[in-house]
C-alpha cells in the first residue's frame, strides 16, 4: 500500500522519535540530542545519536541512520506498512486502507493476514485443550513433573494437541476456515488419498512459536506418549522462517534489553524451565544452527550472548559450531558448558545457579582454545600444526584487522606458538575462496569538512538549493556519499525538520542522518561554503594545468604550451577573484 506523503508526515510529526527509540535503547540527553549504545553493532562507548527536532537517528560508529519508521523496521523486523500502521494508531492518524495499493502487495498482505488469523485461532484451540479439555490431562501432568506452573504456561501460551487424527481440522472447518490456508500455515496436511486433511500435531504438548511482535507464526510439539520424532516443528511458510525466529523472544525481550545479555539454550523446554526459575533472558533457536539473522535480532537487544549447552560431546560441538559466526559478526559471545549428563533444566532443578555462571562465563574463543588441548596432541609437532591450521581457518573469517590481531595474540599464547607463524598460516587461509577480506571494520570514513558544511547548509536553507543546481556546484564535489547526499537534497524542497531521509540511497542516507544530528557549532553561510569549494576546484584545475604544461614542454609542443598557459592565466584571474573578500560574504 502506498501511503500518501501528507499522511506519513502527519504520523512522523506526532510521534516522538526519542520515545520510540527509547523503548529499545537507553538514551541520555546530550545537548540538543540524545545518546545511547547503538542497537545495530556492539560498542561500549555510546555513538548512537537521536535528534528529536529533526526526527532522525544516526550512529557515528556503524553509520546506521534514518527516521523513526526505519528504526522500528530494523529493530522489530516489521514492514514499512506495519510500522506506519502501528504508529498511526498510537497517535490517532487514520490511514487510507487499500487505496493506491499495488495488487500484488494487496494479495500478499491478505495471504499473510489469513495465515496469522488461522494460526491465532489454532492457538486458542490448543490452549483450551490444555487448560480445560480432557485430552489435556497428560500434558498438564507432564508440565507438573517439569515444575512448570500455570503462570509460565500461560505466558508462553502452551497448549495441547489431542491424540486423534483430525480434531484441529474439524474445529477449523467448523469456524469456516479454508483448510488449504491451514495447510499453508503448517497446521494440517492433505491426506494421501486426496480426501481431506489431517492434523500435523497429535498427542503432543504444543509450543506456540512467536515472532518479535508476539504474533503466533507456527507451532512446535513434544510427543506425550511413545513415538518419534520426540520434537516436531511446523514447516516454513510465508510468515515463518526458522532462520529468523528465536523461541521465547517476546517473553525475554524486556529482560534482555534490561540486562543487555541473552542466554541461548537448545530447546523449548530449556527456555521455559529457565523462565520458570527466574532466568528470564533465555532464548533458543528452532532446531537449526544459529544464523546471521539470529545474530542481528540478538544484537539489537543485547550487548553479548551467553551460550548454554549440554556438557556432552554433542553439546560442545553445537556450541563451537557457532564460533565462526560470532567471530565474523564481531559479536561478543561467552559460553557455559554444563557438566556431562546435565542440561539447563536438570542443572537448575538440581540447585545449580545458572545466573551466576552466566555472569562469570568465559569467552567462547577461550573455551575453544582450551578444547584444542584435548582435540589435538599439543606435545607433538604434527598435533600443534593441526591445531594452528584449525584455528587459522576460523580466524580467517574475522574482517576487522584490530580484532583479528588481538585474537592472534591470544591464540598464539594459548597454543604456545610464535605469533609470526600463526599470522603466516592465517594469511594463507585468508586467500582461500570465500574467506573474508581484511578491513578496518565498519567505522565511517572521515568526511571532507567543506563538503560537510555544504550539506548542512543545503539541509538548513532550502533557498540555496537552486543556486547549487544552477551554478554546477555538484561538479566541484569529490565522488562519494557527501556528493550523493548533496545532489539528493538539492532536488528536494523539504526543510530539515521534515526531510525524507529514508528515501535517500544507502550511502547518501548515512551522510544525511549524520548531518541532521550534528550539533556542533553553526556552519558558515552558503556563499562562503560555495566560494571555498570553487577555490578548491579552481586550485585543483590549476595544478593539473601546470602538470600538463610541463608534459607539453618536455614533448616540444610549443603550440599546446601556449594554449595551456592562456587557460592557466584565465584560471589564475578567476582564482584571484574568488579569494577577494566580498561584502555579501561577510
Structure description:
The chain is of the alpha+beta class and 586 residues long. It contains 26 helices and 16 strands. The strands form 4 sheets. It has a 5-stranded antiparallel beta sheet. It has a 5-stranded mixed beta sheet with strand order 13-12-14-15-16. Strands 6-9-10-11 form a 4-stranded antiparallel beta sheet, covered by helices on one side. Helix 18 runs antiparallel to helix 19 (401-415) and helix 25 (526-554) packs antiparallel against helix 26. It is globular and about 100 Å long.
Summarize this entry quickly.
It is built from 26 helices and 16 strands.
Low-confidence stretches: 431-445
Helical amount? 40-55%
The dominant shape is globular
What is the first-to-last residue Cα distance?
A: 50 Å
Radius of gyration: 30 Å
Overall mean confidence score, pLDDT: 85
Counting DSSP E segments of at least 2 residues, the number of strands comes to 16
Number of contiguous helices: 26
* Helix/strand/pairing category: alpha+beta
How large a portion of the residues is in β-strands, by DSSP E? 5-15%
Biggest sheet features:
5 strands, antiparallel
Widest sheet: strand ordering: 1-2-3-4-5
Q: SSE layout and pairings?
A:
Elements: H1 5-14, H2 17-22, E1 28-30, E2 33-36, E3 48-51, E4 56-59, E5 65-66, H3 68-76, H4 80-91, H5 103-131, H6 137-145, H7 150-155, E6 159-161, H8 167-174, H9 179-184, E7 188-190, E8 197-199, E9 204-210, E10 216-223, E11 231-233, H10 249-259, E12 261-265, H11 268-276, E13 282-284, H12 292-299, E14 304-309, H13 313-321, H14 323-329, E15 333-337, H15 344-349, H16 354-359, E16 362-363, H17 364-375, H18 381-395, H19 401-415, H20 419-430, H21 449-460, H22 465-470, H23 481-490, H24 506-517, H25 526-554, H26 558-579
Parallel strand pairs: 12-13, 12-14, 14-15
Antiparallel strand pairs: 1-2, 2-3, 3-4, 4-5, 6-9, 7-8, 9-10, 10-11, 15-16
Helix pairs in contact: 17-19, 18-19, 18-20, 21-23, 21-25, 23-24, 25-26
Amino acid at each position: 500500500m502506498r501511503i500518501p506523503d501528507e499522511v506519513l508526515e502527519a504520523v512522523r510529526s506526532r510521534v516522538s522519535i526519542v520515545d520510540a527509540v527509547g523503548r529499545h535503547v537507553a538514551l541520555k540527553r546530550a545537548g540538543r540530542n540524545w545518546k545511547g549504545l547503538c542497537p545495530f553493532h556492539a560498542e561500549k562507548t555510546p555513538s548512537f545519536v537521536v535528534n528529536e527536532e529533526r526526527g532522525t537517528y544516526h550512529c557515528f560508529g556503524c553509520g546506521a541512520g534514518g527516521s523513526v519508521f526505519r528504526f522500528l523496521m530494523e529493530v522489530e523486523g516489521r514492514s514499512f506498512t506495519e510500522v506506519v500502521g502501528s504508529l498511526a494508531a498510537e497517535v490517532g492518524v487514520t490511514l487510507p486502507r487499500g487505496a493506491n495499493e499495488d495488487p500484488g502487495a494487496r494479495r500478499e498482505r491478505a495471504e499473510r493476514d489469513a495465515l496469522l488469523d488461522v494460526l491465532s485461532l489454532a492457538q486458542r484451540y490448543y490452549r483450551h485443550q490444555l487448560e480445560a479439555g480432557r485430552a489435556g490431562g497428560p500434558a498438564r501432568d507432564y508440565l507438573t513433573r517439569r515444575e512448570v506452573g500455570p503462570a509460565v504456561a500461560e505466558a508462553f501460551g502452551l497448549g495441547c494437541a489431542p491424540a486423534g487424527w483430525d480434531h484441529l481440522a474439524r474445529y477449523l472447518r467448523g469456524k469456516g476456515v479454508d483448510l488449504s490456508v491451514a495447510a499453508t500455515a503448517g497446521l494440517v496436511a492433505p491426506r494421501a488419498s486426496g480426501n481431506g486433511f489431517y492434523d500435523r500435531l497429535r498427542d503432543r504438548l504444543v509450543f506456540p512459536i512467536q515472532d518479535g511482535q508476539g504474533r503466533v507464526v507456527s507451532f512446535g510439539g513434544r510427543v506425550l506418549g511413545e513415538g518419534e520424532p520426540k520434537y516436531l516443528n511446523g514447516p516454513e511458510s510465508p510468515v515463518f522462517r526458522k532462520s529468523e525466529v528465536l523461541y521465547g523472544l517476546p517473553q525475554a525481550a524486556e529482560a534482555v534489553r534490561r540486562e543487555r545479555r541473552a542466554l541461548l539454550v537448545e530447546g523449548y523446554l530449556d527456555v521455559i524451565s529457565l523462565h520458570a526459575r527466574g532466568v528470564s533472558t533465555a532464548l533458543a533457536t528452532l532446531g537449526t544452527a544459529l544464523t546471521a539473522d539470529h545474530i542481528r535480532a540478538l544484537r539489537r537487544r543485547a550487548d553479548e550472548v551467553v551460550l548454554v549447552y549440554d556438557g556432552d560431546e554433542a553439546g560442545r560441538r553445537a556450541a563451537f559450531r557457532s564460533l565462526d559466526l560470532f567471530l565474523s559478526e564481531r559479536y561478543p559471545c561467552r559460553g557455559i558448558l554444563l557438566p556431562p549428563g546435565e542440561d539447563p533444566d536438570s542443572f537448575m532443578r538440581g540447585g545449580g545457579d545458572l545466573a551466576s555462571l552466566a555472569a562469570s562465563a568465559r569467552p567462547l574463543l577461550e573455551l575453544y582454545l582450551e578444547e584444542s588441548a584435548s582435540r589435538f596432541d599439543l606435545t607433538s609437532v604434527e598435533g600443534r600444526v593441526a591445531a594452528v591450521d584449525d584455528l587459522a581457518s576460523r580466524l580467517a573469517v574475522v574482517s576487522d584487522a584490530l580484532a583479528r590481531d588481538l585474537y592472534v595474540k591470544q591464540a598464539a599464547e594459548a597454543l604456545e606458538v610464535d605469533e609470526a607463524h600463526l599470522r603466516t598460516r592465517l594469511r594463507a587461509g585468508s586467500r582461500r575462496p570465500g574467506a573474508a577480506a581484511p578491513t578496518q571494520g565498519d567505522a565511517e570514513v572521515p568526511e571532507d569538512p567543506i563538503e560537510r558544511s555544504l550539506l548542512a547548509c543545503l539541509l538548513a536553507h532550502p533557498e540555496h538549493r537552486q543556486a547549487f543546481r544552477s551554478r554546477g556546484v555538484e561538479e566541484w564535489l569529490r565522488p562519494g556519499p557527501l556528493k550523493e547526499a548533496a545532489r539528493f537534497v538539492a532536488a528536494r524542497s523539504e526543510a530539515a525538520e521534515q526531510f525524507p531521509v529514508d528515501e535517500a540511497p544507502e550511502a547518501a542516507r548515512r551522510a544525511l542522518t549524520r548531518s541532521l544530528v550534528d550539533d556542533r557549532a553553526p556552519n558558515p553561510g552558503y556563499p562562503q561554503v560555495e566560494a571555498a569549494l570553487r577555490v578548491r576546484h579552481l586550485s585543483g584545475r590549476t595544478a593539473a594545468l601546470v602538470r600538463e604544461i610541463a608534459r607539453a614542454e618536455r614533448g616540444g609542443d610549443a603550440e599546446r604550451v601556449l594554449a595551456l598557459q592562456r587557460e592557466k592565466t584565465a584560471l589564475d584571474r578567476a582564482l584571484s577573484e574568488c579569494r577577494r573578500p566580498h561584502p555579501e560574504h561577510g
